[in-house]
Design a protein that fits this description.
By secondary structure, the chain is an alpha/beta fold. The protein has 17 helices and 8 strands. Strands 1-2-4-3-5-6-7-8 form an 8-stranded mixed sheet, with helices on both faces. The protein is globular and about 75 Å long.
Length: 519
């Protein structure tokens, strides 16, 4: 298990957010040291990450340190930040392969690692102890707000902290953005420059980055929802290749059904293109987005692909999202949607005796959580389940939290941002059995139907998905797994332009079909 700090934090605590930044930069350093990927873009991404990070620390944390008796730590950290900024300026005006560039890079890696080690092992624990744990979340909010105002390039001659630094940042930021746009750097910030993706997957993340999304983990939820999503990247690649979309199906209909709070939610119903004689089996497919982002439109391609490949009706609930409706609102809506489908399947041509459930990312969490609640209530269970890169614990679990910390479109910092909003006001939510699936005893897991777990290499959730599959197998559940190297989180819906996605949808459809046929 990969623990970012040697003490417990909440997702929105300032020290937790700082440790996420450290993990991302460290992984970028590792790519550079290994000589893989696009060296220029990797260094530009390091510069971007450290510029925002340093500004936020200097304006939010550093003014507090002397007040609570951390004067020596403050002076040391300020000196190291200055050294880091100067090295980044050198890297910005030189090119990979040049002696000055390589010398500055080696020194940057050394200084930054020393700074991170001091900060995580000594300074942050002391800061939490002296400033008070109850202040960490409030400071975390201010830390993210500062990043939104930060210049995107290092400014060694700017004031070092406090109000003066904030003013300098506000003045520098628009100038930096113009420079980023003119240089093309802005369209590189959201790509995966590691060289670890397949060419097709690389084309998708490059397309997403070319759309210029702002870093979601620094934005408000409202602003983050305005940014281009993974579906937009796939459409961009498809258009470049002259492919028409979306994939045709027999019909698509939106229904209004009850949600879990006495209101209503939309349920989108997909009928396959070559539907045989009815009634047809039904798959409840739950979209992802960290309980904060995205909706049923974002995951339209997944539903169309599954409907056609499985010859089944696919229904997609448009559940409520956080922070407007934090946990357990989304879970409650999905449970209500599944119950409605079983009770009303015949009204849209479905067979209530042949149902399956699944989803992507947090959808892959809510599917088994729904099964658990149905089992507890003694209700009809789905015949099969598919969990695609599922979130199965709120902990930062496993090797993938380090080796995919810098992954795109989901990195470790964005995962924490999602949890911060999803569990707002509910610090106990992370331990709820609907979230902490890895903490469930075997006797509860045995209620699961035959389950397929799909994972991808460049995904921070890879390790916990694989661990969930292992827990299911040990509990005696029929489990199948499918892992894909060289692909990222959110790859499943990209079947139009990604071979691994086409295969994953086919495997998922066959998993459902076997159970439907046996029934």
């Amino acid at each position: 298990m990969n623990v970012p700090l040697n003490y417990e934090t909440q997702a929105g605590d300032v020290d937790h957010l700082i440790a996420d930044d450290h993990a991302i930069v460290e992984r970028l350093f590792q790519h550079l040291e290994a000589g893989r990927g696009n060296r220029r873009v990797l260094v530009d991404q390091v510069s971007f990450e450290l510029a925002l990070h340093a500004f936020a620390e200097e304006t939010v944390l550093y003014p507090i340190w002397p007040e609570i008796g951390m004067t020596d730590e403050h002076d040391d950290a300020e000196h190291e930040h200055q050294e880091i900024k100067e090295l980044l300026v050198t890297l910005g005006r030189t090119e990979p392969g040049q002696e000055e560039f390589e010398r500055a890079l080696a020194e940057l890696i050394r200084v930054t690692r020393h700074h991170v080690d001091d900060e995580e092992q000594e300074e942050l624990p002391e800061f939490r102890s002296k400033a008070g744990a109850e202040r960490m979340a409030e400071l975390g909010g201010r830390f993210l707000a500062a990043k939104r105002q930060a210049p995107t390039r290092p400014h060694p001659h700017a004031p070092s902290e406090g109000v003066a630094e904030r003013i300098a940042g506000v003045l520098a930021r628009p100038l930096d953005q113009v420079r980023d746009t003119l240089s093309g750097r802005r369209k590189e910030m959201a790509t995966d420059a590691s060289g670890l993706l397949t060419p097709q997957a690389q084309a998708i993340v490059d397309a997403h980055s070319s759309l210029g999304p702002l870093p979601l983990q620094t934005l408000t939820p409202e602003r983050a929802r305005e940014q281009p999503g993974p579906d937009d990247a796939v459409k961009e690649v498809a258009a470049e290749r002259g492919l028409e979309g979306p994939e045709p199906v027999g019909s698509v209909e939106d229904l209004r059904i009850p949600d879990g709070a006495g209101g209503e939610q939309t349920l989108r119903v997909y009928t396959p293109a070559d539907a045989g004689p009815g009634p047809l089996p039904v798959i409840v497919w739950i979209h992802g987005g960290g309980w904060v982002l995205f909706d049923i439109d974002t995951y339209d391609a997944s539903c169309r692909g599954l409907a056609n490949k499985a010859g089944a009706i696919v229904v997609s609930p448009d559940y409520r999202r956080a922070p407007e409706a934090p946990f357990p609102a989304s879970h409650d809506d999905v449970l209500a949607a599944y119950r409605w489908v079983v009770a009303n399947a015949t009204t849209f041509g479905g067979d209530p005796a042949r149902t399956g459930i699944g989803g992507e990312s947090v959808g892959g969490n809510m599917a088994p959580a729904t099964v658990l609640q149905l089992a507890e209530a003694g209700e009809q269970l789905p015949l099969a389940q598919v969990c695609v890169y599922p979130l199965t614990t709120a902990e930062q679990f496993g090797e993938s939290m380090a080796d995919a910390a810098d992954g795109r479109p989901l990195n470790r910092a964005l995962l924490s941002w999602m949890a911060m909003h999803a569990f707002a006001g509910r610090p106990d939510a992370a331990r709820d059995p609907r979230i902490d699936l890895l903490g469930l005893p075997a006797e509860r897991l045995r209620s699961m139907p035959p389950t397929l777990v799909v994972t991808g290499e460049r995904d921070v959730l890879r390790s916990q998905g694989q661990e969930f599959a292992r827990h299911l197998q040990e509990a005696g559940v029929e489990v199948a797994t499918r892992h894909y190297d060289g692909v990222m989180h959110e790859f499943f819906g990209a079947a139009a332009v990604l071979d691994e996605a086409e295969d994953a949808q086919r495997v998922a459809a066959e998993h459902f079909t076997r159970s439907f046929t046996a029934a």
